[in-house]
Amino acid sequence: MNHIEYEKWMLYATDSLDEKTRMHFENHLYSCDHCLELYLQAVEEAESQMPVLSDPSGFTDSIMKGIGSTQEKQPPAKMKPKKNIRKQTLVHYTAAAAMTLVLMSTGIFSQLTTTVSSFENAAYKQDHSVISGWLNKTDSITEKIEDNLREGNKHE
Fold this sequence. Notes:
The chain is mainly alpha-helical. Helices cover 81% and strands 0% of the residues. It contains six helices and no strands. Helix 1 (6-13) crosses helix 3 and helix 2 (19-31) packs across helix 3 (33-49). It is flat. The mean pLDDT is 82. Keywords: Membrane, Transmembrane, Transmembrane helix. The chain crosses the membrane at residues 90-109.
């Protein structure tokens, strides 16, 4: 197996390689323990070469203040005026009741029940005819078998 040199792992750790080479190195790490150890050493050395923060809490505070100042610059969101929920609910119930009365007065519900029952009757008739046809066929087959048996008994 070809191992990748430590210097190249240093370039990888400092993000100095192109994307294609980075992908090749990452795939190589999955199968090579020796190169994984070299990579970990390179990361540790690259970490030691990075600048150290003199005041980490001060750095965090300055970042948080910067975030706060960017939030203050945004215009306040427009608030929609709240509608009276009870009034809105009452309007919906009234509209539903009115539609129900209109549909009942036109007879749409009674027409709906007759339509449903006609569908049920058609489905029953269709099922009934299929079952009847199947029974008739099995009955005729049974009769043919019995006739053949009778004829066989007569010839013996």
